[in-house]
Design brief:
Elements: E1 2-10, H1 12-23, E2 30-33, H2 35-42, E3 63-70, H3 74-91, E4 103-109, H4 110-120, E5 124-126, E6 129-133, E7 145-149, H5 161-173, E8 179-183, H6 189-196, E9 201-206, H7 209-221, E10 228-232, E11 243-249, H8 252-258, E12 266-277, H9 279-290, E13 295-302, E14 305-311
Parallel strand pairs: 6-7, 8-9, 8-11, 9-10, 11-12
Antiparallel strand pairs: 1-3, 1-4, 2-3, 5-6, 12-14, 13-14
Length: 312
């Protein structure tokens, strides 16, 4: 099967939003190539790399986000992606620097890019959680919990700072009796990690149908399907379902918009973990949740991103 590889030049700050736009129009793959991730992994003693080309570790400031679209759909889909990117850049003007948003396209065979992507993916260590592509055999060390993700479902693999901070914060608050709720679950990595770490149950929600199917598939892959519920919704429709821990790794404007709704599903005494926040929005997010009666417990930062934990 032939695909069009559609490449957008952006920044580390804008890459996740660009990827989100692309995921609206394809379920065949989106990849972010950010040299800062390579440099961070190079400095990480627990990272797994066969080799890193010395020339690759020079930060040139350009991040490439690639979407793979069936060739027979490209003429219809690519203009829509371009229009949504322009709208995102306009809405984020003065807050988020997207870079040039220069684009290019080329035709590729489907098997080519899948195999290249597989070749360079390695297990990612996030505290006691090891995120691993399903085709790699990994023997966990004592105390480690392996979360397998399907190769074709890339809604959050754990390598991005926002996801990593959520998984690491989750380990600080989780108990064997915890019921967890993941808002905007994507691949399901946060809810699945919670159950693997010993949570009693996890509820996962997302507005994207493909993400919901991805999360269900990954829950089955990890043998935790009986301990999760995945809903195609903005939030759980049933406010009687309460979580001891709620997680939301979404962009800051959406987090602010959800602030009035999220607490209805969080137990008193529970913990809320938010990620996907950049500096210009940081205080706005804090204020939005403080207005709902939540108290800031902890603020962490990786790269250009922040994660917050609140008590309720």
């Amino acid at each position: 099967m032939k695909f069009i590889e559609y490449t957008v030049h952006t920044t580390s700050e804008g890459s996740e939003l660009v990827a989100d736009v692309m995921w609206r129009y394809t379920n065949y793959g989106v990849a972010i190539s950010d040299i800062k991730d390579v440099i961070a992994l190079q400095n990480n003693k627990t990272a797994f790399w066969d080799y890193i080309d010395d020339g690759v570790t020079k930060d040139r400031g350009d991040v490439l986000v690639k979407a793979f679209v069936p060739a027979d759909e490209a003429d219809k889909v690519l203009p829509r992606i371009r229009a949504d990117l322009d709208e995102a850049a306009k809405n984020g003007e003065g807050l988020i620097f997207f870079g040039t948003l220069e684009t290019s396209r080329r035709e590729v065979e489907g098997d080519d890019w899948i195999e290249i992507w597989k070749k360079h993916f390695r297990p990612i260590h996030l505290g006691s959680v090891v995120v691993c592509p399903e085709w790699i055999e990994y023997s966990p060390k004592e105390g480690e919990r392996v979360v397998k993700l399907d190769s074709n479902m890339a809604f959050g693999t754990g390598e991005h700072e926002t996801t990593a901070m959520c998984v690491e914060l989750l380990q600080e608050y989780l108990t064997p009796q915890s019921v967890c709720i993941d808002v905007g679950c994507g691949s399901g990595i946060l809810g699945i990690s919670a159950v693997k770490l010993g949570a009693k149950f996890a509820y996962l929600t997302d507005v994207d149908y493909i993400a919901v199917e991805s999360a269900k598939h990954n829950a089955q892959l990890n043998g935790v399907f009986e301990k999760v519920t995945v809903a195609h919704a903005n939030l759980l429709d049933d406010s009687n379902v309460k979580g001891d821990i709620m997680l939301a790794n979404i962009t800051a404007p959406i987090l602010c918009a959800l602030a009035p709704a999220i607490p209805k599903n969080l137990k008193r005494g529970g913990t809320l973990i938010l990620s996907g926040i950049i500096d210009p929005y940081l205080q706005e997010v804090i204020n939005a949740y403080a207005a709902q009666g939540l108290s800031l417990i902890k603020k962490v930062r990786k790269g250009e991103w922040y994660a917050l934990s609140f008590g309720y």
